[in-house]
Amino acid sequence: MASVPTRPLALLDFVDVSPGLTAGEAIARTVLTAQTADRLGYSRYWISEHHNFPGLASSSPEILISHLADATPRIRVGAAGIMLPNHSPLKVAEWFKTLEAMHPGRIDLGLGRAPGTDQLTAFALRRSREALTANDFPQQAGELIAFLTNRWPEDHPFRSVLATPVVDTLPELLMLGSSGWGSAFAAANGMTTVFAHHMSPELAVDALRSYRESFTPTELGDTPRVIVSVLAFASEDPEAAELFRANWALQMRRIRSGDHTRPGMEEVRAFRASEDYARIAPTLAGRVFAGEPAAVAAEVSALADEAGADEVAVVSPTPDHGAKLRSLELLAAEFGLDRAPGSAGPRLDSRPGPALGSDRH
Q: What is the DSSP code (8-state) at residue 155?
């Protein structure tokens, strides 16, 4: 029995390329993680979009979504998100209508307005300085919605352009954000909002309360719906939880310094034992929820209640893949998720070990 009120859990993954792994092996681990989440009853599996980031293999979420949906029978799969300024709205509509045609009722399209990379790489993606500096996300999003729904103003020049294939159902459209802007945009357009608490914990609650207060029903949605992403890791081993915190702190330090590789477990252990980490560790309270399963579930549930979240997206980056899978199992049990029939299976081991049938992992 769950020790906290049941609430759907999703999973946001970055497709980490940990030291010693190839990109192909990292993607294979991601497939295994998605299959585990599906078996355990997680509601969604999302892939982020990042570019010029050697430590991640998520530069093309639209391709990974197809691969993951093929490998799982029931979980919703999608992007959190597609960074719309990097792409043509027509092309995004075509990608996701194609995905929806192949996997009806299982595709999520989360939109973001950040580049998902540095400014030079964004320039390379967008091909012009005008596109790099344009502040036209509302226009882009409006065009994407029109391409998805085939609803255009009578005088719009794109009215005769049909985003194909023609499908009977559409992907669920969500708006991502780590500030009040994204939630305000979602509220004004009747969209589900996804707030990145793992990036901006100090802004989450106020932004999501404002979203509910200002929500306007549209053809995209008639009731407000909130999803909050949270750094969460459950383990019976206190040291594993501390290493999870240290890994996140070390990742953030590297990113701020321009180093886009991911640390391995030996580097994380060394950092965890350092004076630098001892100084940083107190600042992680309220941002990183890691520890004994019941305590983590209670803390995450309390945050979700305060933010008015209907659903929680778990973010669990760690080079210890066995511990990650075990954490997903522990959280699923605490939140009372609906396992797939006949999926009790063997207990996942939190100790580091082979994940893909090779002693390299």
A: T
- The reported pTM is 0.90
Q: Is the pLDDT of residue 230 over 60?
A: yes
pLDDT of residue 131: 62
Q: Which residue type sits at 172?
A: E
Dist. CA 336–CA 260, nearest whole Å: 36
Question: 333 or 341: which carries more pLDDT confidence?
Answer: 333
Phi-psi region of 191 (alpha: psi -120 to 50; beta: other; left: phi over 0): beta
Burial string for 221-254 (b: 16+ CB within 10 Å, else e) reads beebbbbbbbbbbbbeeeebbbbbbbbbbbbeeb
What angle separates helix 265-272 from helix 238-256, to the nearest 10 degrees? 100
Domain 9-244+288-334 has CATH 3.20.20.30: yes
Identify the pLDDT of residue 193.
Answer: 97
Looking at residue 56, the DSSP 8-state letter turns out to be B
Distance from the Cα of residue 130 to its chain's centroid: 29
pLDDT of residue 219: 87
